[in-house]
Every structure is written in C-alpha cells, then in structure tokens.
From TrEMBL:
<dbReference type="GO" id="GO:0030154">
    <property type="term" value="P:cell differentiation"/>
</dbReference>
<comment type="similarity">
    <text>Belongs to the nephronectin family.</text>
</comment>
<feature type="domain" description="EGF-like">
    <location>
        <begin position="32"/>
        <end position="71"/>
    </location>
</feature>
<feature type="domain" description="EGF-like">
    <location>
        <begin position="112"/>
        <end position="150"/>
    </location>
</feature>
<keyword id="KW-1015">Disulfide bond</keyword>
<dbReference type="GO" id="GO:0005509">
    <property type="term" value="F:calcium ion binding"/>
</dbReference>
<dbReference type="InterPro" id="IPR001881">
    <property type="entry name" value="EGF-like_Ca-bd_dom"/>
</dbReference>
<dbReference type="InterPro" id="IPR009030">
    <property type="entry name" value="Growth_fac_rcpt_cys_sf"/>
</dbReference>
<keyword id="KW-0217">Developmental protein</keyword>
<keyword id="KW-0732">Signal</keyword>
<dbReference type="InterPro" id="IPR018097">
    <property type="entry name" value="EGF_Ca-bd_CS"/>
</dbReference>
<dbReference type="GO" id="GO:0007155">
    <property type="term" value="P:cell adhesion"/>
</dbReference>
<keyword id="KW-0677">Repeat</keyword>
<feature type="domain" description="EGF-like">
    <location>
        <begin position="157"/>
        <end position="195"/>
    </location>
</feature>
<keyword id="KW-0245">EGF-like domain</keyword>
<protein>
    <submittedName>
        <fullName>EGFL6 protein</fullName>
    </submittedName>
</protein>
<dbReference type="InterPro" id="IPR024731">
    <property type="entry name" value="NELL2-like_EGF"/>
</dbReference>
Amino acid sequence: ATCGHGCKYGECMGPNKCKCFPGFTGKTCNQDLNECGLKPRPCEHRCMNTHGSYKCYCLNGYMLMPDGTCASSRTCAMVNCQYGCEEVKGQVQCLCPSGGLQLGPNGRTCIDINECSTGKAVCSYNRRCVNTFGSFYCKCQLGYELKYTSGRYNCVDVNECVTNTHGCSLHAECLNAEGSFQCKCKQGYRGSGFDCS
C-alpha cells in the first residue's frame, strides 16, 4: 500500500487510504480531531481539546471522577476552584485540565505555562515554537513550508523567486536562499533590489 501524500498521524492501509490514530482525522490524518464537538459529548461538564486528545474538567463545586463524570462535592464548593478539584487523603486540591497550565498564586485559578520561553518545548530543526493556552505546537520557520517529501513531513525552503512572492523590482533579479531570498539590481541599474534606477 502506498499513500502518495503520506499519513501524518496514521498508517497507510491501501492505495491512498489512511487509517488515523485516535484523535486525528482528515485524508492524510493531518488534522486534530476535536473530540469536544463529538456527539455524545465525551465530558459531563466541560471539555478542553488538546493535540490528538482531550481533557475533561468540572464546574466549581464538583469533583472529577476517574470515568470523566463530575460528582458534587461540598468541599470543592468551599475551596472555589476554577476547574474542579480532587480530594487526596482528606486534602482538597484544585486541578488544571492540562499539563501546560499551572495553579496560580491563589491556588484556585489556572495560568498558562509558556513552554516556548521556559525551554520545555523542543521543536525539531527548521521549526519554531508557538505557545497556546495550556499547550504549544511547532510550526515551520518563516521562509519554510510543510511538505511531504521522501516518506515524511519536512519543513522545506519556499522558493520565493518561483512562487512570485518576492516583490523585487522589475529591473532586478531574484536569488533564492535557504529560508529567504535576495533581490539584486540588473546590470546598469542601482538600488536596494526592491527599487532599482
């Protein structure tokens, strides 16, 4: 079985037929499935979609149970947690619905951890980190685009001279470079390359 465009988060099962891993969808399994939008809803109260998965959390005054349901809890109601709580050995602790969130100084609300600036996020070569609330993702560096080449997805240089996105002067030639480009005025002309006279 060969899949010309590849299966990003899945396996090739037949000619251009992908079987996606749980949490992913699309012809090439390159899209995150928003489980929170599924019917029946996977969570009783609130749902937070994450890359390839989802997390359940409860309204204030409820406690998240192992099966994803929410149980009323007087102790949780008294603590006033933003995203529900859990009781461990009689101690009430507020919860955050994702590892990319941490309890704020008040111990009740959750604040975002910027994985890009703390160095927790590791993006491969030619990719940059983009922080999101509760998580992050890796995106191709500027001047590169995601392409399926030699059996996998890579960030490949965009040839601005071919795609005609350079903005060079009519009297200049475009020279492509790795992740970038240059405009050079033609013989007999002077200037920046964007302006030649």
